[in-house]
Amino acid sequence: MHRFALALTVTLLFHLSTNAQNNTSSNDASAVRTTVTHYIEGYFSGDAQRMEQTLHPHYLKHVIHAAIPMREMTGPELIKGVRQEGKPDLAAADKSEQVTVLDVAEDIASAKLVTPGWTDYMTLSKVNGEWKILSVVQRIDE
């Protein structure tokens, strides 16, 4: 009887632990999606401060655009550009986004951001309980 009680206790603890992990993963996936959404909506609205809040201190972006040599952009360079340029001159239809959280593994996540003009593949890191965009590889569509 004691073995049965022990087995039942272990099974219940495992089940509770698995549910807690799934809830954490679901909460993290939602937080990652929110971070990416703030990033792109900050860009679309010309809100450099909103974008800046989503960036990791070591943010780096690689831009791939057809035969043009690959370009790199740091977080400060990105924010400076948004501050100088303001709201981009895009039609309302071009200011749409689809965010897909590809994976969350503890304090690292990956996401894909698709807009009518480009696709961003992102790596995010959890810093002090907040998800920050660490890197972006952007493919500009022709």
**What shape does the CA trace take?**
globular
What is the residue-mean pLDDT, rounded to a whole number? Answer: 87
Evaluate the radius of gyration: 20 Å
SSE topology string:
HHEEHEEEE
Quote the distance from N terminus to C terminus. Answer: 69 Å
CATH topology: Nuclear Transport Factor 2, Chain: A
Number of domains: 1
Q: How many individual β-strands?
A: 6
% residues in beta strands: 35-45%
Physical arrangement of strands within the biggest beta sheet = 2-1-6-5-4-3
Discrete helix count: 3
What share of residues is helical?
Answer: 40-55%
CATH architecture verdict: Roll
Description:
The protein has 142 residues and is of the alpha+beta class. Helices cover 42% and strands 38% of the residues. It has 3 helices and 6 strands; from the N terminus they run H-H-E-E-H-E-E-E-E. Strands 2-1-6-5-4-3 form a 6-stranded mixed beta sheet. Strand 1 and strand 2 (68-74) form a beta hairpin. The radius of gyration is 20 Å and the shape is globular. The N and C termini lie far apart (69 Å).
